[in-house]
Amino acid sequence: MVEIAAPKRTVASNIIVRLFSFILLIFFAKFAFILTVNSGDYVISAADYVTSAAEKAQILDFYTSVFENLIAERFIDSHSKSLCLEPRSSEEIVALRDVGVENAIGVSRKRSLPLILQGTAVRQPFDDDSFDFVFSGVFVLERSNEPVKFAVEVSRTLKPGGFFVVHTKAIDSYSLNSLLELFNCCILIDSREINGLDFSRIREVVLMKGSENLGLGENDEKESTKCYVPHYKRELIRNLEPLISEEPLKPWITLKRNVRNIRYVSSMIDISFKNRYVYVDVGARSYGSSIGGWFQKFYPKQDKAFDIYAIEADKAFYKEYKSKKRVTLLPYAAWVRNESLFFEINRKAIRKTEEKGRGLGKDQAVLSTWNFVTDLDRIMGFDFANWLKNTVSETDFVVVKMDVEGAEFHLIPKLVETGAICLIDEMFLACHYNRWKRCCPGMRISKYPKTYAECLNLFSSLREKGIPVHQWR
């Protein structure tokens, strides 16, 4: 009887199988490590969860020291019903109990009974006025995608007279005041720098809930025509790049170079504690002109997702905006009131102009319906200042770029008059004046009636009011 030997795997096939298995193992291990879960509030990564005994001991020692100091200052005592928001581990709650605060609990997406219940900082499974003390560790509030809801929930579950303590990596005065604007239910008791878990400096903020909740967003800011720029915002002006004091002989070169020297506000401060992040491009032209070509590539956003508004009256650019996510096109011209606007058309070059697109005053002068004109191109203008006041609030971080070919001398005074200017955290302004002609030395462009001195005065007056404005190309 002849035995038929079973087929043997070749050495090559064995190597391939083992190599493939090894690659799969590496892939899944890496995937498990970088896996993140979007909680609807903030993103939780594998690094947020504590696993090693040494790390747990370090966390326990750190928070024991923190809570002992808070007890010594009478912000918390043994009878305080206490809550830890989104703790990295149960050691935060253990530390509270070790220092004598027995009635302490945590809330997190990752439940760990009996110390941590399932929930989130913005959706706490507790009744109103439940806690005497609420604690939020480093990065919990910073990473929140819903900071206003975060503040509302803290206000809801914290008893009047109770204390909310938050740790944050942000130590600049701008971020502190942004945090205080979020928690307008509370008053500031203390703010100090301490050593964090990794021995880096962090800020510890102690707030106390008042007897009356002011309510977020329930002030009259949108009705007010006056605005006040606080000192902590005015301090930023000193750190901006200097204005170009002398009129440049070659402005098309000088102003373009100046953009490289800009000191962005968001490179000097932490913008974490804001409700929304908004970029408004007034006179946007094409998407690649300044939104895609500059803002998306170069503006320091600190990993924040900005809502973008493109204000452009030229129909030639509308189609490309349809496919852009998080970009809202406003197909109008920014103006001082809602009305029809007209542009003088150069009939000799109309074909060339239409091919390139006619933006707000790009090749023509803007005229109101109050002017008598003959040869015109008509578009709709809208009250930009009023729109801004109804679109953003003081709890938002707002960046505005304005390039409106001379209309800035109408729009800026209206923004100041209505108080809308104070809603802008950073502004990039192109000021149009009778520049020297590139082609003809000694000759000026007659298109714009303003002088460079008037432009410089416009920039200086805005900075004096506390508005961080930059000279745009």
Classify the secondary structure makeup into a structural class: alpha/beta
Helix content class = 25-40%
Gyration radius, rounded:
29 Å
Helical stretch count?
13
Oligomer: single chain
* Strand arrangement across the biggest beta sheet: 5-4-3-6-7-9-8
Number of beta strands: 19
Mean pLDDT: 84
N/C terminus separation:
93 Å
Largest sheet: 7 strands, mixed
Strand content: 15-25%
Overall, the morphology is elongated
Low-confidence blocks of residues? 1-9, 27-40, 42-48, 217-222, 345-365, 369-375
Write up this protein.
The radius of gyration is 29 Å and the shape is elongated. The chain has 473 residues and is α/β, with parallel strands linked by helices. The chain starts with 10 loop residues before the first helix and ends with a strand. The strands form 4 sheets. Strands 5-4-3-6-7-9-8 form a 7-stranded mixed sheet. Mean pLDDT is 84; it is low at 1-9, 27-40, 42-48, 217-222, 345-365 and 369-375. It has helices spanning 11-34, 53-72, 91-98, 147-157, 173-182, 231-234, 251-260, 291-298, 318-321, 350-356, 384-391, 408-418, 452-464, and strands at residues 36-38, 43-45, 82-85, 104-108, 116-118, 131-136, 158-168, 186-195, 201-209, 277-282, 307-311, 327-330, 333-335, 339-344, 366-368, 376-383, 397-402, 426-429, 469-471.
Quick gist of this model?
The chain is of the alpha/beta class and 473 residues long.
Any chance you could write out the topology, listing elements then pairs?
Layout: H1 11-34, E1 36-38, E2 43-45, H2 53-72, E3 82-85, H3 91-98, E4 104-108, E5 116-118, E6 131-136, H4 147-157, E7 158-168, H5 173-182, E8 186-195, E9 201-209, H6 231-234, H7 251-260, E10 277-282, H8 291-298, E11 307-311, H9 318-321, E12 327-330, E13 333-335, E14 339-344, H10 350-356, E15 366-368, E16 376-383, H11 384-391, E17 397-402, H12 408-418, E18 426-429, H13 452-464, E19 469-471
Parallel strand pairs: 3-4, 3-6, 4-5, 6-7, 10-11, 10-17, 11-12, 13-16, 17-18, 18-19
Antiparallel strand pairs: 1-2, 7-9, 8-9, 14-15, 14-16
